[in-house]
Amino acid sequence: MSLAVAEDVDDELWSAVGDPTRRRMLDLLLASGPGTATSLSDQLPVTRQAVAKHLQVLDHAGLVHGTTAGRERRYQVDEAQLARAVAQLASVGASWEARLQRIKRIAEAIQRDREV
Amino acid sequence: MSLAVAEDVDDELWSAVGDPTRRRMLDLLLASGPGTATSLSDQLPVTRQAVAKHLQVLDHAGLVHGTTAGRERRYQVDEAQLARAVAQLASVGASWEARLQRIKRIAEAIQRDREV
DNA sequence: CTCATACGCAACCAAAGGTTGCAGGAGGAT
DNA sequence: ATCCTCCTGCAACCTTTGGTTGCGTATGAG
């Protein structure tokens, strides 16, 4: 049985998604479609500049993708990359859950031994 | 259909689990059983003090639970709380995936309209 | 008793999230 | 063409957080 830790996970994706503000930005972009730093910032408790920095991070992680249109710059979610991120979350979760199961089995085995 | 954003998530749990070092620590504690700041630190690329701080964070989030034994202080994973964290990861992932699916369906509908 | 070991506390440093302030470019109104 | 507005980018600065080194202290081994 492979005990390899599931931390072959892309740390940049994780930390991109690890920030609560960025998670909410992704939520908003998914819920309302493409948006700009300004449009996002007035749905969030932070300033436009903070949002802009987060958009850079998300862009660099490939989770969003921005296009300039006139004086606006609108960003939209890269669906494939977000799907990848979701898969990695699931992977880490599954790994932990597997270990918890294993511990539980061992605990039960000890319990049985005591009852003999 | 409820469009409520899945950010009713406990931010403390998320950020506890959001840090890569803390994730590795949880991995180690799950893999090798209870451990001390020292025992963890020499399996990690950071100092004992850094590990100690992370243990405080994890403890405060309820993910681990430490007991003093002589001159050692050993920590072990709180399985129930970690299970909760895993559930929250899964919840956010599911929420995003649902939205991605919805977007995909809409895109296909538009595609069909064009083909008429 | 002495020595090694594990710990906690404090000072310090760099990076990240956040803020304010300002200069510049694109569009609409006069 | 001009003026005004709006959205953007850049720079300076503050605070929190992950990380380090250094030190004092307590506990177990010899």
UniProtKB/TrEMBL annotation, chains A, B:
SUPFAM superfamilies: Winged helix' DNA-binding domain. PROSITE patterns: HTH_ARSR_2. CDD domains: HTH_ARSR. It comes from the Bacteria. GO terms for molecular function: DNA-binding transcription factor activity. Residues 3-97 form the HTH arsR-type domain. InterPro entries: ArsR-like_HTH, HTH_ArsR_DNA-bd_dom, WH-like_DNA-bd_sf, WH_DNA-bd_sf. This is Winged helix-turn-helix transcriptional regulator.
